């Protein structure tokens, strides 16, 4: 079957089998390997992408659901238009050491951006609750929480510019 959707701001049309998962489509057909597959059961959150602005786990979502939709992956996360800067959440993760091996980072970032967009004034409890569906096997989460809070503050500051 053929589906058309907006991928990272660009119109995209692909032919696929109806049973294709979004994560498979991204990684194997579109060569966007930033979306990681860690569990295939929707438990780890490494595969989080934004579908029509909402975070979803792409390892259990069938690709035909993308038809007519807007999809944002980690590759589409960008800083301010016209700048060479990273997205404020990415910069916060770098600055506050919110990653170690980096495997969970794309999913953490996509979840964090959604959290900060939904609730700009995040508390530590909000962040810890919001990241419950994302597993990091390397860190103790403290630097991730600090990174998300700093990223949310930076996203708010960027809105005011």
Automatic annotation (TrEMBL):
Keywords: 2Fe-2S, Iron, Iron-sulfur, Metal-binding, Oxidoreductase
The 2Fe-2S ferredoxin-type domain, residue ranges: 1-77
Molecular function as annotated in GO: 2 iron, 2 sulfur cluster binding; metal ion binding; oxidoreductase activity
Superkingdom as given in the UniProt entry: Bacteria
Record InterPro entries: 2Fe-2S-bd, 2Fe-2S-bd_dom_sf, 2Fe-2S_ferredoxin-like_sf, 2Fe-2S_ferredoxin-type, Beta-grasp_dom_sf, Diverse_Oxidoreductases
Pfam name, any one: Fer2
PANTHER family: OXIDOREDUCTASE WITH IRON-SULFUR SUBUNIT
Protein name, as recorded: (2Fe-2S)-binding protein
């Amino acid at each position: 079957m053929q589906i058309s959707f907006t991928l990272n701001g660009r119109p995209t049309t692909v032919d696929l089998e109806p049973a294709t998962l979004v994560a498979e489509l991204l990684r194997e057909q579109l060569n966007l390997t930033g979306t990681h597959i860690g569990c295939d059961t929707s438990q780890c959150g490494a595969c989080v992408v934004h579908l029509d602005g909402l975070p979803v786990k792409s390892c259990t979502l069938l690709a035909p659901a993308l038809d007519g939709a807007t999809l944002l992956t980690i590759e589409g996360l960008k800083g301010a238009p016209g700048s060479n800067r990273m997205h404020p959440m990415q910069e916060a993760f770098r600055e506050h050491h919110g990653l170690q091996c980096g495997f969970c980072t794309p999913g953490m970032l996509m979840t964090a951006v959604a959290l900060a967009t939904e609730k700009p004034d995040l508390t530590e409890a909000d962040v810890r609750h919001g990241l419950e569906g994302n597993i990091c096997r390397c860190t103790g989460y403290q630097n991730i929480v600090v990174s998300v809070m700093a990223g949310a503050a930076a996203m708010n500051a960027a809105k005011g510019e």
